[in-house]
């Protein structure tokens, strides 16, 4: 559903509202620390506060929104400790993914992953940064789907979403959460059935992504009508340019990541 589409019917349900807010976060249209004002969200989606609160509660469960007593809801701002913990879990899970695929799970469906990487490259070349960010994360979640393990997929889906939020905090728009060149190399190793090489490439890829996180940038004010598109037909924020976002008034500058890698971050 487009940002300018009127919200009605099923789209006004808390689940649908949560999905639109989630997309705005993961596409870097809402920055970490941005305040999610209930009154403004009610205007944008044309619903009562109860629906907004249910949607925000759902996003808080997924670690994408922080609910602060007497202050309201904010897009989550992961700490450096959380960065390390998220990527530690991703390495454990995604090395298991490549091992299962090379063991015969989903090998016949690798061609679809190759097509996805092609779309990822095209999004980069056309400066469609929202699609680029989304596809770079989907490379990892779609690989997990090939294993047929739904519990593993659910775990990785949540971790990839949190990784994308982290990249929004530590990176500017226009730098992908992942490198599609790395994805191409990983896919080639999987296609060759070389589990050892695929695991080594995946491990290096995730490590470089973690180490590339930069100091969080200063943010401006976020206009939720602009981010989601007002119901009266106001234009949506462009996905090809970095939007102005807001941070908590009491936020402090974060420490820099101790090391930086040369490859694109995730």
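^ structure tokens above, recovered residues below v
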């Amino acid at each position: 559903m487009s940002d300018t589409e009127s919200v009605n019917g099923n789209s006004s349900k808390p689940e649908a509202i949560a999905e639109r807010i989630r997309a705005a976060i993961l596409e870097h249209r809402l920055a970490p620390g941005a305040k999610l004002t209930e009154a403004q969200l009610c205007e944008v989606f044309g619903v009562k506060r109860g629906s907004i609160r249910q949607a925000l509660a759902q996003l808080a469960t997924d670690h994408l929104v922080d609910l602060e007593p007497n202050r309201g809801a904010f897009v989550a701002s992961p700490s450096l400790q959380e960065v390390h913990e998220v990527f530690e879990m991703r390495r454990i899970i995604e090395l298991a993914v490549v091992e299962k695929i090379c063991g015969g799970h989903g090998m016949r469906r690798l061609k679809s992953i190759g097509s996805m990487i092609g779309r990822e490259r095209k999004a980069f070349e056309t400066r469609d940064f929202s699609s680029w960010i989304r596809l770079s994360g989907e490379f990892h979640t779609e690989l997990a789907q090939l294993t047929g393990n739904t519990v593993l997929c659910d775990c990785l889906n949540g971790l990839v979403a949190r990784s994308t939020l982290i990249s929004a905090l530590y990176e500017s728009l226009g730098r992908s959460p992942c490198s599609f060149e790395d994805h191409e190399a990983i896919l080639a190793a999987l296609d060759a059935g070389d589990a050892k090489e695929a695991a080594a490439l995946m491990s290096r890829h995730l490590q470089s992504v973690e180490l590339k996180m930069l100091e969080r940038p200063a943010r401006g004010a976020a206009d939720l009508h602009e981010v989601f598109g007002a119901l009266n037909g106001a234009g949506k924020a462009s996905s090809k340019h970095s939007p102005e976002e807001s941070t908590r008034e009491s936020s402090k500058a974060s420490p820099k990541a101790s090391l930086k890698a040369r490859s694109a971050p995730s």
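The beta strands are 35-36, 65-68, 72-75.
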